[in-house]
Amino acid sequence: MDFELSREHQALRRLIREFAEEEVRPAARQADRSSQPPVEVIKKAAEIGLFGVPFPREYGGLGAGETGYCILMEELGRVDTSFATIIGAHIGIGAMAIYLGGSKHIREKYLPDLCSGKKIAAFALTEPQAGSDAASIKMRATKEGDSYILDGSKMWITNGPLASTMSILAVTDPALGARGGATAFVIETRDENGQTTEGFTPGKYEHKMGLHGSPTAAISFDNFRVPQENILGQTGLGFVVFMQTLDVGRVTLGAATLGGAQASLQQVLEWAAMREQFGKPLAQMQSIQFMIADMAAETEALRSLVYRTAWLVDNQKPFIKEAGMCKLLGSEIASRCVDRAVQVLGALGYSRDVHTERGFRDARIAEIFEGTNEIQRILIAEQLLREVGVRIRP
Ligand code: COS
After folding, report:
1. 7-116 against 240-387: fold identical
2. CB 269 less than 6 A from any atom of ligand 1
3. Is the pLDDT of residue 394 over 80?
4. Would residue 387 show up in a list of annotated catalytic residues for this protein?
5. Are 46 and 72 in contact (CB under 8 A)?
6. Helix (H, G, I), strand (E, B) or coil at 225
7. With the C-alpha atoms ordered 79, 242, 64, 255, is the resulting torsion angle positive or negative?
8. 182-188/121-124 β-pairing
9. Is 247's C-beta closer than 6 angstroms to any atom of ligand 1?
10. How far apart are CA 82 and CA 362, in angstroms?
């Protein structure tokens, strides 16, 4: 058993950490305050190849696999969850659905521009009535000659206002419903000048509790044409492509929360060493030491889980259960850690002058998006019970 990262992965971590500290961190507060994504930092991330970290070199990626992608998300999650979310929605679900479901031709057509960051991707699944119950989507794709016509709307789409390429799921056979009658497509929603494609309307920006630097929007389609060759996977089997994509995304969401938890721990360590009350540093107080120990133990356990699961993905071994665990544990550990950081920093932790307050707001969503933690618990239990011959859903 070897717990060392390869030299390439260590070099990748150094590159990303430097970028995160020098470029992402200084822009994070302004992005949060203005609710605008840091466009210049996004461009610089693209220039150094961060938009294609896991994908093979033949498609323009860095070829660093799921392990490299987890390193990316951990390092970004350490400094700014919003920025990690922009990159995560682009790589982990938007472009990943194209990689997992696309033919060689479709991969070659779309992935190079996504890996270079020339284009930004989004993943369009959720609809007003279809959140946890992903199979209740109503968006229609109707066959017309060599094309499909998309009609309907999606909501809570991360990168919705930035993306020009989207993976989208729509019902092609209403009689079969989404589980056996939905098809996944890759679509182009904007041209090179940012002009929206006919039939596509970006909707209102969502005003969220946190993640202000990561734009989220509703989007709608009216008579939007997509060529048949843009199908991801097989006709009628798009639900599976989308579920497989979410599995991969959940591992790296775990990595982003690992970064958040680590940052909270670091902040508590530094503050506890410096801040004095009752004539001694907080670090001398057992109540604070207990918090530090709990944070460190949870963070270390999460680290082992995330990188072992990345290893499973990179070695083509089953990982659905572990992906759910990364997302479930990661989101809850990060929330607990940042909550403790606010407590240790006291009134300062509640102040908008330190990034703990932003981290506290930003952490909460990880318990909800990419499948709520309740859904993750069901998926984990289902996988375990299946191994002993019990089915908990029809
Ligand atoms: N990998 C491969 N195939 C999968 C799969 C996975 N992870 N999950 C489901 N499938 C397949 C099933 O095997 C089934 O195929 P068969 O009928 O051939 O057996 C089909 O997809 C339907 O699956 P299932 O019956 O499990 O669908 P359900 O509607 O009961 O629910 C859950 C599936 C709850 C897992 C799904 O709705 C879900 O993940 N919800 C959360 C959605 C989410 O994460 N939203 C976030 C928004 S996008 S950021």
Report:
1. no
2. no
3. no
4. no
5. no
6. strand
7. positive
8. unpaired
9. yes
10. 7
pLDDT at position 73: 98
Local structure of residue 284 (DSSP, 8 states): G
Q: Look at the alpha carbons of 354, 356, 357, 363 in this order and tell me if their dihedral is positive or negative.
A: positive
Q: Which CATH number fits domain 240-387: 1.10.340.30, 1.20.140.10, 2.60.40.2890, 1.10.10.10?
A: 1.20.140.10
* Residue 240 beta carbon below 6 angstroms from any ligand 1 atom: yes
Residue 392 pLDDT grade (very low, low, confident, very high; cuts 50, 70, 90): confident
Ligand 1 center–CA 386 separation, angstroms: 15
Look up residue 199 and give its DSSP letter. T
Homologous superfamily of 7-116 in CATH? Acyl-CoA dehydrogenase/oxidase, N-terminal domain (1.10.540.10)
Say if strands 280-281 and 276-277 run parallel, antiparallel, or are unpaired.
antiparallel
Q: Which CATH class is domain 121-238?
A: mainly beta
Q: Which residues of 224-259 are buried (b: 16+ CB within 10 A; e: fewer)?
A: bbbeeebbbbebbbbbbbbbbbbbbbbbbbbbbbbb
What distance in Å separates the CA atoms of residue 71 and residue 67, rounded to the nearest whole number? Answer: 6
**CB–CB of 99/248 below 8 Å?**
no
- pLDDT at residue 2 is higher than 90: no
Average pLDDT, the chain: 97
Burial class (CB in 10 A: 0-12, 13-18, 19+), 308: middle
**Atom 13 (ligand 1) nearest CA:** 240
Environment class of residue 186 by beta-carbon count within 10 Å: exposed (0-12), middle (13-18) or buried (19+)? Answer: buried
| One-letter amino acid of 220 | S
